[in-house]
Amino acid sequence: MENKRINGNDLLALGYAENSALGVALQINKKRLGFTREQMLAHFSAILANPEAYAEDAVFKTLAQELLKQDELEASYIALKEEGHYEIYGEEHIEEGAKQQMQVAMTLRVSVAGALMPDAHQGYGLPIGGVLATGNAVIPYGVGVDIGCRMALSIFDLPAAYLTEHSDALKKVIMQTTKFGAGQGFQKGDRASHAVLEQDTFAMNDLLRSLKDKAWAQLGTSGGGNHFVEFGVIAFDQADAELGIEAGEYVALLTHSGSRGLGATLADHYTKLAKQLCKLPYKAQHLAYLDLGTAEGQEYWMAMNLAGDYTSACHEVIHEKVRHQLGAERLAKVENHHNFAWKEMWNGQELIVHRKGATPAAKGVMGIIPGSMASPGFLVRGKGQMESINSASHGAGRLMSRTKAIKTLAPSDLKAILNDQGITLMGAGMDEAPMAYKDIHTVMAAQQDLVDVLATFSPKIVRMADDGSRED
C-alpha cells in the first residue's frame, strides 16, 4: 500500500472537487518529491483545508494558488444543464468511463440529442463511438483529432482464388502504393496531384497556408495507429441491385486512414481556440464548442470540411494506384467517414451531428464496418433509426488500451490466429492484435436495428505501420 500511486479518487475522498485544482494536485503527486503516500495525502488534506498557508510553499504553492482562485473560475464558466437522455446500444459491453463521458456531453447547453454505439470506449471529450447532436455549435474534440477518418472499399472483377495465386505480387502492390507511420510522406518527385490541393480554403489563414506543403507530401499516405490497407475476399450471399453486383466472392481492397498531419494540427489549434472562447467546468473542458454564428466557428467548419475532402483524396490516390497496377475492372466503390460533424435534419430541426468513431447510417446510406486484422468486416446499408441519430458503430472498438495490449498479449497467440485464418500481416504491433478488440459479431448483433448487412469482407493481406506509431 505504501507505494500505491495516489489517484483522483483518493483526492476526491479527501474532499477535492472535480476541477482544475485536482489536475494540479495529480501533477505534483507524479513527482512524489521524497514523500511517502501517507505524507502526500496529509499535505493534500492540509492544503485543501487552508490553502493560504501554502501560498508561498516551494513545493505546493501552485496547488494552493489554484485552490484560492477556484471561486473566481467557477463564476466565469458557462453553466451546464441537467443531464439529458441518450440511447445506448450494446450497453453491457461498454465501459463505465465511456458512459460517464457521454453523460457529461449531454449536459452542454448546446446538446440536443446523443447516442452511444456498441463499439464505444473512453476517449478525450466525447467517447469513441459517441454521437452528439448540437444546436448551431461544433465541438472540435467532438469531431476528434483525426478529422474525417475514412473507410474505402473497392470491389474488383477478380475471383477469390486470385488472392492465393498472386499473393506475392499483391504484397508488392501494397508496399509500392502507400506509406505507413506517423510523419511519413513522399518526396517531391513521387508526390501525387489532386484537385483538393487547389481548394481556396488552403488560403483561408496562415495556419492552412503553412500546412499545404505537408498535405501534398502526405497525400496518399496512410499514417499509423489502427490504419491499414488490406486485400481480402468480399462475399455477397445474394445480388445487390443498387451496386450492380451478383452473388459470389470477389477480390476487394479495403483502406482505413485519415487526414494525417493536416487534420491533427487543425484539431489541436481549434481545440485550444475553443477552450479559450468557451470556458466550461473542468469535467467538460474538452467539449469546448464554437458557435457557428461566429467567425471562429465558420473558420473551423471550413477547415474541418477541407480535412474531410483531403482524406477522401488520400483514399482515391491509393485506390487508383492499386486499380492501375491490378489492371482489373472495378465493379463498385463504397466509402464512409467518421470523426466529423454534419448538418442534418433530426426530429424536424437542423442540428450539427458529431460522430466521433461512428458511421453515418441514414436510410439507404452505405458504409463499411471493419472488425480487426483477423476478423471480418461488413458492408452495410443504414436503416435510418432516429434514436441512434442515423448512426452505427465504426468498427469493433477497443477491448483494452494499447499499453495493456502490448504488456499482456503474446505474439505467439497472434501468429497462431493469423495462420489459422490464412492471413499475411505486414507491419503492426501487438497493440493492434485482434485480441485487443471487442468481438465484431457481438457488436453487429447489438446494432441489427441500425443497419442491414449486404456482404462480408474477410482480410487476407494486411498492411499496417511497422512501428505501431500513433497518428501524427
UniProtKB/TrEMBL annotation:
UniProt-listed PANTHER family: RNA-SPLICING LIGASE RTCB
Catalytic reaction annotation: a 3'-end 3'-phospho-ribonucleotide-RNA + a 5'-end dephospho-ribonucleoside-RNA + GTP = a ribonucleotidyl-ribonucleotide-RNA + GMP + diphosphate
InterPro entries linked to this entry: RtcB (IPR001233), RtcB-like (IPR052915), RtcB-like_sf (IPR036025)
GO molecular function, a single term: RNA ligase (GTP) activity
Entry annotated with the keyword Disulfide bond: no
Keywords: GTP-binding, Ligase, Manganese, Metal-binding, Nucleotide-binding, RNA repair
Superkingdom classification of source: Bacteria
UniProt name for this protein: 3'-phosphate/5'-hydroxy nucleic acid ligase
SUPFAM superfamilies the record matches: Hypothetical protein PH1602
Gene3D superfamilies, per the entry: tRNA-splicing ligase RtcB
EC identifiers of the protein: 6.5.1.8
Keyword Flavoprotein: no
Cofactor(s) the record lists: Mn(2+)
